[in-house]
Structures are given as C-alpha cells and as structure tokens.
C-alpha cells in the first residue's frame, strides 16, 4: 500500500550508423528544450534511461521507449513490464548510487517531485537530465512526442501524441460547454488536501464543465479546512485517495446534510492512477469524471 508521501507524487550501445529505430537514426544528435526551458543536446538518442517519477515511466513506455528504460523509482507500476525495472529509490528520495550504477545516458526527472540537489549532482557527473512538468492535458501529448525524440522512437511518440490529442478533442467537444458545476476535489483527508487551478487535475475539471472551488489558491496542492470547504458550497465532491477502492472518509461529508453535494448525492470517487498521473490514462479519468458530472447535472 503506498504511503502518504506517495500521494504527493500523484502528484513530483554502440551507435550503428545504418540502423534506424522507429524512423530515427541511431547516431543522429537530439536537440530539445525541457519543461524548465533548459536546452539539452544528446549526441545520439538515449539507450539507457532512468525515470525519476512513476508518470514519467508510464509516458516512456507509451512513447515506445520502454526497452530503453533501465531503472525507475518506486510505484512505477504501469504498464506491467515497468514492475520488473530495477528501483532507484522514491521520487523524493532518489538512491543516487543505484542511478549511477545503471550507467544512464539520460535521466528524466519531475520538476515538482525530485530534489534539485539530486539533479545537480547528476549533471555534475556529466549525466544529461531532462525535466518534465505537465500542467495541462495537452502537455501529456507534448511529453509523449518529446520522449519519443529523446529515445529515438519518434514515430511511436508522435503516433501516441496524435491519438491522445484526438481523444482529448472529442471530450472537449462533448463536455466543455455543459452547464457549470462547483466542484471540490479531495486529494486526501488528513490533512485535508486539494489542488489549485494550475494543477493538471483542474484542467480535467474544466474539460468536464466544472469549476474548481479552490482554483485561486497560490499553492499547487494546498491544505484547507472543513470550514473553508463548507463556505464554497460545492455541488460535487470528488475524492481520489491512494488505492483502487473508494475511500471511507469520503462519506464523512454526509454529516453536513445541507451541503449541496451531500443533499443531491454527489459524492464521487475516481481511482487516483486515472486522474493524478500525468499520462495517457488521464483521459480515462476524465471520461469517468465527465460522466459523474452528467449525473450531478441531472440532480439539479
């Protein structure tokens, strides 16, 4: 069972000139800018990649680069093949010795989750570091294309990005103009945690035609109190938690019988891996949320 710290993540070869991998020449240099605005140049596509966040691991596989990944952090559990990767600690407590022992030619890191001290040490050792930080749904597609370039699986990465954008556009067309609902997203109960308007989950909420009641808070994943939630009078409360099952603490809101979300029976759950990870599965979570909000609109 993942720890509370894991929740904050849910947030964090020898070249062969004549060989082509998914449309990219093995020896071709890669010039790219990461999500922190830093330019990165690889002499050739990476062949030994270490992932420092579960969502990065999943994105690498989705971009056709799974065979290039030689190590990953704890909870990198999707797809199934990722479970067999050597572990290099957790996203916030990276085992630097394990990373170095794997002799990576690229480390892909998470701006919000990994410690700068770890990344600075890797750079000092001459290991290229690419920073990933998706904040909008379309950033997932961007990441897929970027990871394909980094690993030399350009065709697979671009195809995955194109399919993701097409599915996203279909959801936007179907739900974004629906009557607005006021929604409180409960990431955790003790402490009571939510997300602000800059978080990827808020982009999903907007996609489905709702407004995050704490969108204006300055912190990406802030703690709030019960009184502030009651003051916003949400029509819908959505919880995630840390497991596949609906958290029992979602029902704690039932004591507030005059709260619109409670009075109308709009207490919903979405499996965290489907809405808290910055991966193609975010659209699975979006479809579930959009469906739940249609139920809520019918109860107005």
From TrEMBL:
Pfam families: Peripla_BP_2. It comes from the Bacteria. Residues 48-297 form the Fe/B12 periplasmic-binding domain. This is Cobalamin-binding protein. One of its GO terms (biological process) is cellular response to iron ion. InterPro entries: ABC_Transporter_SBP (IPR050902), ABC_transptr_periplasmic_BD (IPR002491), Vit_B12_bind_prot (IPR054828). PANTHER family: MOLYBDATE-BINDING PROTEIN MOLA, VITAMIN B12-BINDING PROTEIN. Keywords: Signal. Residues 1-27 form the signal peptide. The keyword Ubl conjugation does not apply.
